[in-house]
Structures are given as structure tokens and as C-alpha cells.
Amino acid sequence: MKCRPVLARGFTLIEIMVVLVIVSIIGIGSYSLLEIFFSTDRVLNARADEMRRLSMAMYRMDDDLRQLTVRPVKNAYSGYEPAFQGVTNEFEFTRLGAANLTGEPRGNVQRLHYGIGYAEEDSESRFERELDDDTALLIRSRWRILDRGPDSEPIAEPILDGVVELNMRYYDRDTKAWLAQWPPASSASAPGAVDLRLPQAIEVTLLTRGGGEMRRVFSLPDYTVVSATGGSGSGGSSSGGDDDDERDSGSSSSSGGDDRDDNRGEDQ
Prior knowledge:
The chain is an alpha+beta fold. The protein is 30% helix and 26% strand. Strand 11 (224-225) and strand 12 form a beta hairpin. The chain is elongated.
């Protein structure tokens, strides 16, 4: 009886093609899942970074507004700027307790300005704009001195990029209404007098490219404004005492002149 040799059989071409197709499908699916995972991680990190920078900008603004004081300043000409002034996209005020960590030639009372602007083309800041980017920067500007001269320039510090729109409103404690500017247009201050009133609150609406719209209401500290001979106070009357004394002495001399005129009239 003859034994037939057993023939060794391998994989057919069809079986190999089927295996390759299955391996390819698994590989493509795994790569897609990894790509989705890494893309999601990048988006979440970018979102977290955007919210972190937005929160830091709002914290910076809140910290400055908590130190708001009733202190008008001289402008570069011959007049005074109100203690607080603002419009729909910017405001300016005086704050106390500005730490001087770098030893600059200035005091601890600062005049600050918040508004929007654009990065310079030759700037090396991390807030540089792309060519097709129409967003702006939220800029915090500060002056080294309170009472400015003709050559006084603020130091601008960008604190947030990607700003699409910035809107502000001011709550008047007297009329109980939100206003688009401060001091109010219907201010009852005498001509030439410095407006010392402060809004009760400020509403800031910030629209950014990556963070969407954010609305924040800042409650301002309480203050009192007494008679002209007593100056003004909100914890910061001493910082503007010299200027207040000058204005008070001026008002006293003018009132004295009226008394002399009255006395002459009686003698006649």
C-alpha cells in the first residue's frame, strides 16, 4: 500500500487580502480616534487658557476698581479731570494702594485708564495680531504722575487679546438708571467745578474671539462728598488735600469779596 504525501497548504491570496483589509480598517479607526482625542485636548487647553486670561483680566480690573478714590487730577492744560470719567468703550479713574515694586519715581496713588487698542506692527509682545485678525486688545494704561504736564504720556499694558467688542454702562445712584457716559450729561455741577461723583456700579460687557460674550458688574466702594471747605473723602481725601485746599481757598476768597461788596452797599 502506497502512502500519499501530504501537501502543505498556505494562505490563499483572497485570505491575505481579507486580513489586510481588516487590519487597515482597524488602523484607520485607531488613528482617527487618536486624532480626535488629541484635537479635543488641544481645543480644551486653548479654551482653558482663554478663560484663564479672561479671568485674570477681569480680576485685574476688579482689583483696581476696589481701590477707587475721589481724587480729580489736573490735565495737561489748565483744567481738572473728574475723579471718574467714562464712555461706552473706555473709562479713567484714580486708585489708591498702587504698590511700587520697581521703585519708579511715583507715589502710591495712580491714574488708570481702561480701553481697547491695537498692537503695533513692530511689537515683540505675545499679543501681536495676525494680518487677517480684526480683533483688538484690552489695554490698561497708567500715568506715573497724577497731575499731568504737556509731555505726560501713559504707559500702556495689554492684558487681554482677541477682543471683538467692549461696552460699558454706569449706574447712577441718584436717578437709579444705567447711563452710557460718566459724569452724566445732565450734571448739575457749576461751570468750572470738578465733578467728584462716582457711579454706584459699572457694567462691562466683553466679547472675545475665543471666549464668547462675558458680562460683569463691578460694585464700586461707597464714598461721601462733604462741603467745599471740608474737601471730599472716600479714603483718599488726603491724596488730593493740597488741590482741595487750593480750590477751597479760592472759593473762600471769592465769597469774601461778595461780603465786602455787600458792606459797601450798606454804607452807601
